[in-house]
Every structure is written in C-alpha cells, then in structure tokens.
Write a structure and sequence with these properties.
Layout: E1 5-8, H1 14-23, E2 28-31, H2 35-44, E3 47-48, H3 52-57, E4 61-64, H4 69-83, E5 89-92, H5 98-110, E6 114-117, E7 120-121, H6 123-128, E8 132-137, H7 140-153, E9 154-161, H8 165-193, H9 198-206, H10 213-223, H11 234-250, H12 256-270, H13 282-303
Helix pairs in contact: 4-5, 8-10, 8-11, 8-12, 8-13, 9-10, 11-12
Length: 304
C-alpha cells in the first residue's frame, strides 16, 4: 500500500499534527488555503500540493481536519474522492455531525476507499506534543491498520464503534465541557461575592462531590485569574455547542439546559470574543450582574 500521507487543513491543530508526522518519518503531502503553514511544513520536508485532487492522486492515506461540516462536504465531494485510488484510507478529524461523515463514508465505499472518523480533544498544546485524545469510529480492521499513524498524533486513542461514533462521542464531550464551564463560571462568581478564598474553594471542591476536570483546570487556571489568552477558542467551542443543538433539532429532541448555554456562548461570540479562550464566557455572568446593579442604581435615582 502507498504509505504517503496527504494532510488537508493546517490550522492551529492541523499544523502541529502534520509536523509530528514529519518528525516521525512519514512522507507527507500537504494542502491548505493559507500558504503560510504550507511553507513551514515544506521547510520541514513536506511536499506542497497545488490542489486537492492532485494531492489525492498521489497518497495512500489522507487526513483532513477542517472548520466544519460544510467544508468536509466541499472537500470530499469536490474532487477528492474522485481522485483517491481504491484502497486508500481517509481519516477525517473535524469536529462535525456524525451524519456528515456517514454520508461521505458511504460514497467512499462505492469507490473502494476506507474511512475513519477521528476527532480529537486536548487543544493546541497537546497537538504540539502529540498527546491528544482521539475518538475513532469505523471498521475495526481499518482502525487497527491506522493505529501507527494515530499514535503519532495522540497518546490516548479510543475505538468508539462504527463510522460516525467518534464524532458523536466528541460531541457529548464538548456538550459537557461547555456546560461545566458555564456552571463553573457562576460558581466562581458566587464564591467571590461570598468573600471566600478561591484557593481553598478549588482545593475543597477538588476533594468533594462537586469536583470536575473543568473546575480543577479551567476555573483554577483561567476563570479565577481572568486569563483568557487564546487556548481553545470561543468561536470553536460555540460551533461544537451548536452541533449538539443541531443534532437535537434534527431528531426532535429537547435540550433546555444546553439551549440556554448556547445562548450564553452566542452572546459572548456576538460581543467579539471569538478569538479568546472559551473560558471568557465566565464574563457573561459578571456582565449580567453588573448590568443588574446599574439598573438598580438608575431606578433608585429616578425614585428620589
């Protein structure tokens, strides 16, 4: 089998993942609309491709990590599947709806092409050091053949079931992450208003039934110190929250808590915070209380 890997999507996550594959000795052909990361990877030994179809024609493996469902459909249905050779394996790593990759997988099978969906968790820092968590859906045999490649990109690799199940599990993880962050933000605000020592709160909660990864990490390292420097961006988390809501609507499901959380994320996105770390949604609670206090003062002033 052709061992050349094609890599499409060299953003904040994709570029370090591709760099790790190069460091591991894999021959790599890359494509991205942004020429900057392409040039950086070429310096490291990758080959640049002028278009998606040309890239697909020379690889035996293909990895894609794209902004959203629309781009997945555009890339795979826009000449990529037509150009891949039978026997090629596609590893689709975008956070997207399960039905999107199932549709592409069905079209790929007709052409003798295998497909896995393999979204990741862990953020840019873990993409850089190759320690991502990867959730992989697809045929077990294809998963086993792909493990050596996946193990370069991630440290913890979970086989989740059939094609689309990886994206479904990632969706659930992000559902909980977004919700836990919103709850942690309110808990921090309440504790601060009570005058509590926040180091004590973090320590006690960490040893009690309210403990969570988000409170121990996001709350302690971002929400409490108000450190919203770019990590996992708010606009990307808002997109992941929207995936859950889109799936719920398409399947006639009601998720009232997540609906409210989506509104909070969208509100902060509308205020221009998309490029900041998603923990910046903690400031929504601060804003609401500040606005309430201001309204009370204005009301009292009018009554005097």
């Amino acid at each position: 089998m052709n061992d050349i890997i094609g890599f499409i999507g060299l953003g904040n996550m994709g570029k370090p993942m591709a760099q790790n594959l190069l460091k591991a000795g894999y021959p790599l052909v890359v494509y991205d609309l942004n020429p900057v990361p392409v040039k950086e990877l070429v310096v490291m030994g990758a080959k640049a491709s002028g278009d998606i179809a040309s890239l697909a024609a020379e690889v035996g493996w293909l990895i894609t990590i794209l902004p959203a469902d629309r781009q997945i459909l555009e890339v795979y249905q826009g000449g990529l599947l037509e150009s891949l050779k039978p026997g090629a394996v596609c590893i689709e790593m975008t956070s997207a709806l399960p039905d999107t990759v199932k549709l592409i997988g069905k079209e790929a099978r007709v052409k003798g092409i295998d497909m896995l969906d393999a979204p990741v968790s862990g953020g840019v820092a873990r993409a850089v050091d190759g320690s991502l968590t990867i959730m992989v859906g697809g045929e077990p045999g294809v998963f086993e053949r792909s493990k050596p490649i996946l193990q370069v990109i991630g440290k913890v690799i979970h086989y989740t079931g059939g094609l689309g199940s990886g994206k479904a599990v990632k969706m659930i993880n992000q559902f909980l992450n977004a919700g836990n962050t919103a709850i942690a933000a309110e808990a921090v605000y309440l504790a601060e208003r009570m005058g509590l020592d926040m180091g004590t709160v973090v320590r006690v909660v960490g040893e009690s039934s309210g403990a969570s990864w988000v409170f121990a990490n996001t709350a302690a390292k971002a929400i409490i110190p108000r450190n919203f420097k770019p990590g996992f961006r708010l606009d990307l988390m808002a997109k992941d929250v929207r995936l859950s809501m889109d799936y719920a609507r398409q399947n006639q499901m009601v998720l009232p808590v997540m609906s409210l959380i989506q509104q909070i994320y969208q509100s902060m996105l509308n205020q221009g915070h998309g490029a900041e770390a998603y923990s910046v949604i903690s400031q929504w609670t601060v804003q609401q209380n500040t606005d309430l206090q201001q309204s009370k003062k204005e009301y009292q002033s009018c009554m005097m």
